[in-house]
Amino acid sequence: ATPTAIMAATGQAARRGIYIRNGEALETASGLTVLVFDKTGTVTEGRPVVSHFVSQPDFDANDVLALVAAAEAGSEHHLARSVVDYARSRGIEPQPVDDFSAEIGRGIRARIGRHVVLVGSASYLAEEGVAVQVPSLDGQTPVLAAIDGTFAALFGISDRPRPTSAAAIARLHDLGIRTIMVTGDVAAAAHPIAAEVGIPEVVAQASPARKQEIVAELRAAGESVGMIGDGINDAPALAAADVGFAIGTGTDVAIEAAPVTLVNGDIAKVAEMIELSRKTMRIIR
Ligand code: ADP
Ligand code: MG
Q1: Closest CA to 139 of 196, 219, 91
Q2: Of all helices (H) and strands (E), which one includes residue 69?
Q3: What amino acid positions are annotated as catalytic residues?
Q4: Ligand 2 centroid to residue 281 C-alpha, Å
Q5: Coil, strand, or helix at residue 43?
Q6: pTM to 2 decimal places
Q7: Which uninterrupted H or E stretch holds 65?
Q8: Tens of pLDDT along 40-79?
Q9: Which of 45, 143, 159 gets mutated to test ligand 1 (max ligand atoms within 8 A of its CB)?
């Protein structure tokens, strides 16, 4: 590999919105056999919208919404922003909280005055000892809220695939690359999105550690693995991959964990980079 050819290709990539931090990533990309995709904010736009909200009978809807919005205002998760937007659309401004912690890949916990508010997946609330019921939400992502240990409200949230995702996946398949979606979301929400964009394999309800483990297992099985993600929850998997691709509009933690940044977040750029890498490696071998 001549350094000049690598530098030229890196410059060419940068002009197309693909920032490559080291020459090794460019070289390795030519041999990738599997690409693992995060869902929310990677395959989808990451602008989810609350389309369903019901508070439990013993709770006042606006009171619950005010507490949940206050709690979620401290989170940079896409789902959290959609909840805050929804509350604002109903005239509720998030109030300050006394204490906040993010449980990455699960949800958040906040203390607001005398109340403790948990917001997150059904499994997170269940693990925290909250009795929950989740009705089928027709493919939406369920987000649940508990106040002082009692299930208080359910949100159904949906996010559209990026308009370029289906073509990007098809192009990767044309290049002979296997694609897998690995998401923290539930299967009922993940499968319709995967089907819509043409990703044949789906692993749902994957924790950040599980995402990393899946990348490591694929590598141990002899695959050369690319990982594409945008969230704090994707950082361990991005770092464990042969080549990590961070969505440029995503979190700083993801960008720091990956040698490649897709500046405008277009996952079609992954196929472009692989083609450029293959071309470069043919020239310089
Ligand atoms: P993904 O892999 O789709 O990016 P995450 O690993 O970030 O998802 O989150 C997994 C699940 O945890 C979400 O689908 C949601 O149910 C829950 N969750 C995580 N963070 C939050 C939050 N701030 N607010 C509500 N739910 C959350
Ligand atoms: Mg994500």
Answers
A1: 196
A2: helix 61-72
A3: 38
A4: 31
A5: helix
A6: 0.94
A7: helix 61-72
A8: 999 999 999 999 999 999 999 999 999 999 999 999 899 9
A9: 143
Rounded Cα distance between 274 and 285, Å, is 16
| Residue 16 contacts residue 269 (beta carbons within 8 Å) | yes
Find the residues whose C-beta lies inside 6 A of ligand 1: 38-40, 72, 75, 77, 79-80, 105-108, 119-121, 141, 143, 183-185, 231, 233
For atom 26 of ligand 1, the residue with the nearest CA is 120
Q: ipTM score here?
A: 0.97
CB 80 within 8 Å of CB 88: no
**Does residue 274 sit in helix, strand or coil?**
helix
Tens digit of each residue's pLDDT (9 = 90 or more) over 1-44 = 688 999 999 999 999 999 999 999 999 999 999 999 999 999 99
Instruction: Name the DSSP letter for residue 79.
Output: H
In the chain, what are the domains?
3-45+161-284 (3.40.50.1000), 49-158 (3.40.1110.10)
What residue has token string 């999105």?
193
